[in-house]
Amino acid sequence: MRDRYQRTIEYLRVSVTDRCNLRCRYCMPEEGIKRMRHEEILTFDEITAVVRALAKLGVHKVRLTGGEPLVRRDITDLVAMIHAVPGIDTVAMTTNAVLLADKAEALKRNGLTHVNISVDSLNGETFADIARSDAAAEVRRGIEAAQSAGLRVKLNCVPLRGVNEDEIIGLIDWSRQRGLPLRFIELMPIGCAAASGLKGIPSDELREMLSRHYGTLLPHLDRQNCAGPASYYDLPEGGVIGFIDAIEHPFCTSCNRVRLTANGFLKLCLHARDGLDLRPLLRSGVSGEDLEETIARAVRRKPERHHFGESGGDSRFMYQVGG
Q1: Helix (H) or strand (E) holding 156
Q2: Are the CB atoms for 133 and 23 separated by under 8 Å?
Q3: Global model pTM greater than 0.85
Q4: 8: helix, strand or coil
């Protein structure tokens, strides 16, 4: 399936809930959120129907996000349902890993292939400052369980000025020792991040800092476990790091994804409000063929680029759009 700019759309990100068991300062307000009502959120059958339609249109990779996907009851059942859809060869998840230790083996058994884990700090105090939770030990146990279960694991870190910048080298060395790629994701200027007072560290500055510490960063050529929008590099002493910096270095020309929010809105771009409300269609008994055709028409309207920093974009919090 191609959009009007001839980009191949083959990747779907599905937010399964707006709820989370952390309150990260750049993502969610401390007092929590006004939760969606149970009836507003897509059922597993409805999510699977959308996945099935998109698979017939060429999507082969699905990533489950949130909120925090592991707080959704029976999430392992949804993994199995998506894994069983013809054409889907990758079922991935992005998680904070707080609940992962007890679920990793079942997720792997039911068809999960990849997991991205958010790790902004290994220091208990710093972790608690960012996430408003003392769950750092649970995250480490979740990472270990995911590796033991045979999942392909990548780590994500949001570098924050004056918060975790003095831990970046230590976090890289910790991930290198475990053979895990570590990606640095720039702070997105939307939702809580825009109002929190937190400042991100530009990726170009990080690259320069890491080059001074480790030596020349070499482009990473083996993409088997390093797919996606990040620019990956090998460290001279071993280890892989990546940078996702959609504002500094937009990758819109190669964007291959669409997003499904927890309440059934098909977002065509993370920062755009344009899209398609699929929930009424799904609950009206739409046929599979009509669903495919409607989605295909919508995808052809996918914007050429994001408009971060400009007016008129989607300013909702990340947990609301399934970033």
Answers
A1: strand 152-157
A2: yes
A3: yes
A4: strand
